[in-house]
Design goal:
With 86 residues, the protein is an alpha+beta fold. 43% of the residues lie in helices and 31% in strands.
Length: 86
């Protein structure tokens, strides 16, 4: 994460502390909006979309079955500009 913050700071023309603060603010915003089941769109990058996941049974690597509680999973859908540059 440190390397990404330094690269973002260089690209934005700010110091690493400011870039880290902006990254933390974005993560906090996505977390808050996801908990309310709202999507967050970042222009030119993509959309973070929360989805409710029902209670379900999963199988572990060693073959045991586990009951997973319901929850919210966050899906990322890359935007067209990001897909174009990959």
């Amino acid at each position: 994460m440190e390397q990404i913050v330094q690269q973002a700071a260089a690209a934005a023309g700010c110091d690493a502390q400011q870039a880290a603060a902006m990254a933390e603010a974005l993560v906090a915003l996505v977390r808050e909006r996801a908990s309310q089941l709202d999507s967050v769109a970042v222009p030119g990058f993509g959309t973070f979309a929360p989805q409710k996941e029902n209670e379900h049974v999963t199988t572990t690597a060693d073959g045991r079955h586990m009951l997973m509680p319901p929850g919210i999973v966050l899906k990322f859908h890359p935007g067209s500009m990001l897909r174009k540059h990959l």
